[in-house]
Design goal:
nine-stranded mixed beta sheet, 9 helices, 40% helix
Amino acid sequence: MISRRLCALGTALLVCVGLLSACGDDSDGSGGSGDKTLTVYAAASLTKTFTDIGKEFESQHDGVEVEFSFGGSSDLVAQIQQGAPADVFASADEANMQKLTGDVPQADDPVDFASNTLEIATPPGDPAGIKSFADLGKDGVNVVVCAPEVPCGAAAVKAEAATGVTINPVSEEQSVTDVLAKVSSGEADAGLVYVTDVKGAGDSVEGVTFPESSTIVNTYPIVALKDSKNSDLAQDFIDLVTSDTGRSILEEAGFAKP
């Protein structure tokens, strides 16, 4: 009889210990693993560089995964304003950043970390013979640009004003990577993208520079969002982007200093 009672008591104790352990596992709100995810929304033109910076960040922060959402800056801002759970936002221009830091700020003070300029991209061999910005306005030339609300599209509008050339695009895309894809696939004779996009595309496109681009510079700001549940990690990521390591990665891709 005594042995049966001792066994029952032992079983009960094991159950209690198991329950306490289970409760302890979930105390950090991460399903027991202790891992955390830092969500970064960033302009499409930052895809390669931020992916590399993200890997460096993960190597410096055990148990932290960086999850990226890349796209047109205007689309990303709209998603954040609608409640998308993001910790960090990096824009390809200051105008879209202002939407989050204006009268009712959803973010802290942004930090400028890079700049970029436009370049014409053509398919390999430049079949349409694009040699200057003026060639983009010729009849029969299929040109793809970003939509005006997207930073690369806003820069294209400024380029038209600076050169006096009017472009009649066959399509307006929501991100610079979409423009590049249409050019590299041969769907367009030319597209207005960034210097970094042409460099990153390798042999899939050719680049055509134009002098007016030097006066049309997009400055890239980055910011921690106020609703972030990982504010310390968000600041750590921004610190890495603006560090010598981050700047080296950005400069290697063709980005200039802000």
